[in-house]
Amino acid sequence: MSAQAYEDEGQKIAASLLLESRMPAAGTETTLAIRMSPQAGWHGYWLNPGDAGFPQQLQWHLPEGVTVGELQYPAPEQLLASDLMNYIYHGDYTLLAPLVIADDIAAGTPITLAVDIRYLVCSPKLCVPEQQRLQTRFKVGEKGASKKYLETFNTWRQLIPRPAAASADFTVHKDQFVLSLPLPESTTLAEELHFYPEVNGVLSNTASQSFVRNGDRLFMQTVATEGNVSDFYGVLSLNETLAIRIKAVRQPEGDLVFPTQVSLPPEQPGNLLVTSLIAVLGAVLGGFLLNLMPCVFPILSLKVLSLANLSDERVARTGAVAYTLGAVLACLLLGAFILMLREFGHQVGWAFQLQRPEIIVALILLMMAIGLNLAGLFELGTLSSGSRLQHKPGAAGDFWTGVLAAFVATPCTGPFMATALGAALVLPTSIGLMVFAGLGLGMALPFLLVGFVPALRQRMPRPGAWMVTAKRFFAVPMFLTALGLVWVLMQQSNSQYVFTALLLVLLLSLGLWLTGLFQQAGRQKPLWPLVLVLVISGVSLTTVAPGSGTKATVTDTESTMAFDEETLLALVKDQDVFVYFSADWCLTCKVNEKTAIERQETQAVFSRANTAVILGDWTNGDPEITGFLAKHQRSGVPLYLWYQRGNLQPQVLPQVLTSSMLIEKAAGRATNL
Known about the structure:
- By secondary structure, the protein is of the alpha+beta class.
- The strands form five sheets. Strands 12, 13, 14, 15, 16, 17, 18 and 19 form an eight-stranded mixed sheet that branches.
- A hairpin with a 7-residue loop joins strand 23 and strand 24 (about 650).
- Helix 2 runs antiparallel to helix 7, helix 2 (about 265-290) runs parallel beside helix 8 (about 430-450) and helix 7 crosses helix 8.
- The longest helix has about 30 residues, at about 315-345.
- It starts with a strand and ends in a 6-residue tail after the last helix.
């Protein structure tokens, strides 16, 4: 394909004519693009330029058998100058149109396309009308678009407003313009919306626009003009990535009433308060349920039992408060760090620390140390049981145990915390921090209740030999957690790094065994072997590079594709698409994959229904996936989305999946899960 722009030296916009397919076949349709690149400080105009300027004008020079359809414009921006509202483009923009080749044109026929364009280009001080002739040449053939051009054109297509499935209604009463359009309540909206009419004379371009949602309808109110337009088209920018083109049909005066009783401005503080309260309470409940996770339950159980027979109210309450402070502070620091990184433009989400192999190794060593302590290889006062549970554990030990519990629980927050943590990243910073604090408070709630309610402590089992057995039993989930983390490390790093990690586990076990022997012998400074191992571990982790993981595929299903937003948009046009986001350290993700997604019967139905499956692997972190999660108000995985063919608004599936649920969606029998 060749493209050429004819321009004078002083022209302010460089333009080019491009084709998606280098050799479009006869009887087919391809996409044509007019690429406009204004110089710095200059801007071009939309289909409707607004209160000043004129739209782009085109005159095509086409051979017989070649036709060009209606030009499609990306959503514009606003420019208010001297009480005049203009609809413009800052920076490069691309206009698209369908190009149809007649089926009677022979293969190999050379085709020359040319177009004369006339447009207005402006800077803050000057406006200049310009004109150019653009042309491109190609031969009729059988080849489709190359991957390079397909990706480029898909990027441009994403910026074109999607046609709305249903028309909108509008009325004009005196000087009030009211628009009502159907919009699913689940659609994510930007804080500031704007409706761009494709024609003037129906609403004031400079007047403010008020929006309010009422169920599955979105209402807009603004100032009407004196024009008498019946039906017209307009573009509504819903958020940063989605705009829709709407046909507005005029209704009799008085048929539409803007719902001022629930209008956005007076209700916004209340809505924010309710949303914040729900998010915080959801975080507290989610944190409470996290105590059932295998890596948290043993720690919590031992700490609760340590308070069971304390008669000193002050000691019990101090320990409970210290544990709570540790859990809350750990969640607050993690949350604050995430919010700070996002402010600096970094795409990170909850449990981001587990995307670093060094952190995984540190957690493996920590889980092994706790497991060996519970197994009786050595003793640490803050985690020991048996007769020691009757002794004062110390507020410092309780505090750091709370920190530990909060840190190791982060990969398990998926089924309980997705909505609350997602809200924390889009709510104001102060409220977002309250959500993270609520997570820590929920985790500490059982310990807090036992510490402050003597009746609960009296109902706890009496100490005895059974507690030693319980302590040994609690070592098992800690070892299993460490084993799971080793598997995660194998996906994130090379074999040399995994071998180093296992060597450190062996050295740690040896060091703790020697520590236990010194403790039994009554030796002074029995912890020096453990300190030595920790120093060796720190040096090893900083000198050995993790490399890359050894896995070749992210699932056992050959038909699963890696996540790419452009691929997703292309597939949705022709088929249903199931998209799921996972990570190897996410327990909920792995359970759902084994019990629902990767089951043979599920994959068989997907194949028969021609359902595409896309996996976003977040194990090592991915800015594109993090940004996509943020669009759906999620801070971490899992996330399951179902796209129906031709519909770019997905249905969010539950975070606990079943095979029957996915089979029903693929078979088209379920409409609402």
